[in-house]
Amino acid sequence: MSDDRLRSRPTAGDRLDTLLSGEPPETPTAIEAVREAALEALDDDATAFLTGGAGGDRTMDHNRTAFERYRIVPRMLRDVTDRDHSVDLLGSTLRTPLLLAPVGIQTNYHDEGEIATARAARSLEVPMIVSSVASHSLEAIAEAVGDGTLWFQLYPSSDDAITESFLRRAEAAGYEAVVVTVDAHVMGWRESTLDRGYLPFLDGEGIENYLTDPAFRDGLDEPPEADVDSAIDHFSAVFGHSAFDWDDLERVAESTDLPVLVKGILHPRDALTAVERGADGVVVSNHGGRQIDNALAALEALPGVVDAVDGRIPVLFDSGVRRGADAFVAMALGADAVAVGRPYLYGLAVDGESGVRSVLSNLLADLDATLALAGHTSWETVDRTTIRETTSR
User: Fold this and answer.
1) Residues of the chain scoring pLDDT < 50
2) HSE on the CB side for 338, CA within 13 Å?
C-alpha cells in the first residue's frame, strides 16, 4: 500500500467534522444504540442467532467484563499531530490494525449480506475475513470488492477433498491469508437458538460455498439444483471435523502458499504448538463466547499467548471489542491486530452497506482519538506500560 493511501485514511477529526455538521447521523454513534436499532429491525430468529452465546452466556459476559479491568494511562504534552495507524502483518502493510472477524450467514441480517459488508470494508481499507459459511460464495464476494483485502476463514471438513478444494478456490480468488478456526469442531450449546428450533444450515442457509464446490458436489448423487435436501444432508455429514488435530493443521499449512493463521487459541501451550507446526499466526479468540460456556475471556488469555509466542509469529485478537478503547487495550497487551464481529453486524442490520460503513468509520475515528489522547502517534509506543490493570470496576 502506498504512503499516500496510508496518509489519506479518515482521522478522528474528519469523522467528527461529519458528525458535527448539524445533522444527526442516520446510524447512531453509540454501539449500544446501533444494537438496539438492529434488534428492532430483525426477526426473533435472527436476533437469537446474533445475540446468543453458549450456555448461560457467561463467556460472552466475561469477554466484556475483562476490558473493564484495564485503564488507559494517558501521557501529556506530546505532539500527536501526525498519527500513523498502519501495521505490518504477514508481509503487507495495513492502514489500520482493525479487521472484520469472520461471521457466517450474513443474509440473516440484510438481503445483501457479506456483499454489503465487504464493500463497506473495502471503502475504508479494512481487511475482511470471509467465513466458510457465508451466504455468498467466496468468489462472488471477491468479485464484488475488487482490490479489497480479503482473508478466508476455513472450517476444516471431515472430507479432506473439500478442505483442499476450499484452499485452491481461495488462492484462485485472490484471498491473501487463510484463517483456520479450531474451536468449532463440534457445535456449541446455544440455548437461545435451540429453544427456537432455529438451525439455519438445515434450511440451506450459509452453505453456498459448499453447494458451489466441485469436491462437495462430487459427493452427491444429484446436483443441489435437482435435490437440495440431499445436498443439505451431505453438508451436515461433512461440515466440521471433530478429529482435526495438529497433524491435520500442519498438512493444511503445507498445502497452501497462503499464510495460515490458527483461530481459537486461548492456551499458551497451544500457541507454541501452532508455531512449531508451521502456523503463520494465531488468533486469540473464544468465538465471541458462542462455543463453550464459562470459558476464559479472550482478553485474559491474550498476554499469556503473546509471551509464549515471543514475537515469532503475529498474534491477533477478537472477542468482545466494542469501542476504540477496547482495541487500544488489546494492542497494548500485545496484539498485532484486532478483529471485530458483532458491531458491524448491528450496522448491517440497520442500514446494509451504509450501516457497516458508519459503524466502522466510528470505530476507526474512536481508535484514532484514543491513540492521540493517550499521547501516541503510532502503535510502536503502545505497550503494557500504557495501561493499568485494576481490581475495581
Assistant:
1) 1-10
2) 31
H/E stretch holding 229 reads helix 228-238
CA–CA dist 84, 96 (Å, integer):
9
Spell out the residues 6+ positions from residue 154 whose beta carbon is closer than 8 angstroms to its own. 132, 163, 166, 167, 170, 178, 179, 180, 181, 252
240: left (phi over 0), alpha (psi -120 to 50) or beta: left
Query: What letter does residue 189 receive in the DSSP assignment?
Result: -
Residues acting as catalytic residues:
287
| Cα-based angle 179, 188, 286 (whole degrees, multiple of 5) | 45
Which pLDDT value is given to residue 29? Answer: 93
Output the pLDDT for position 391.
Answer: 81
Domain locations along the chain: 3-378
Cβ atoms 261, 279 nearer than 8 A: yes
The answer to whether residues 41 and 185 touch, using CB atoms and an 8 Å cutoff, is no
- Determine the 3-state secondary structure of 282 from DSSP: strand
CB 369 within 8 A of CB 74: no
Phi and psi angles of residue 293, each rounded to the nearest 5 degrees, phi first: -80, 145
d(C-alpha 119, C-alpha 370), whole Å: 26
Burial of 246 (0-12, 13-18, 19+ CB in 10 A): middle
Quickly tell me which residue has 472450517 as its cell. Answer: 155
61 vs 323: CA distance, rounded Å: 16
b (16+ CB within 10 A) / e for 349-368? bbbbbbbbbbbbbbbbbbbb
For 3-378, CATH gives 3.20.20.70
What's residue 20's pLDDT?
Answer: 63
